[in-house]
């Protein structure tokens, strides 16, 4: 059975929306190695519609960007109730039917892990369904005050801390699993 590994850049006050607007001043080799370690353990990406559209709008047009070979070459599973096709980005497959059951079926397959980046709504749903095996939070030492949060209220998701590392920038890499 495949593991599902979710990774998010997140602020101290739980905001995970639009990390491109606030996270780069904290990015260094330590964080790059942590992110690379997640990707190296996976052979499939799982993305919600918004993240897929954002990534599909960048990576195919920038084949020489660092990491483009991984992003473009990796198999991508896309969860969306509004997209008709995902032909705009190579190796993308639109998951059919109930997203929770589709992810459960994908996890039952053989191979390396399935990794996620972003996709807050999908991440919340999969955490509640107890399908996330590892939640990697790269907690940045900044409070943003507003923006979409990983937990937006009402959820009860017990987690257990598996490991934590503090980077020289003050970013905390906390890895959680199901409690």
Automatic annotation (TrEMBL):
Residues 3-172 form the Bacterial bifunctional deaminase-reductase C-terminal domain. Coiled coil: none annotated. It comes from the Bacteria. GO terms for molecular function: 5-amino-6-(5-phosphoribosylamino)uracil reductase activity. Pfam families: RibD_C (PF01872). InterPro entries: DHFR-like_dom_sf, RibDG_C, Riboflavin_Biosynth_HTPR. One of its GO terms (biological process) is riboflavin biosynthetic process. This is Dihydrofolate reductase. It comes from Kribbella turkmenica. The lineage of its organism: Bacteria, Bacillati, Actinomycetota, Actinomycetes, Propionibacteriales.
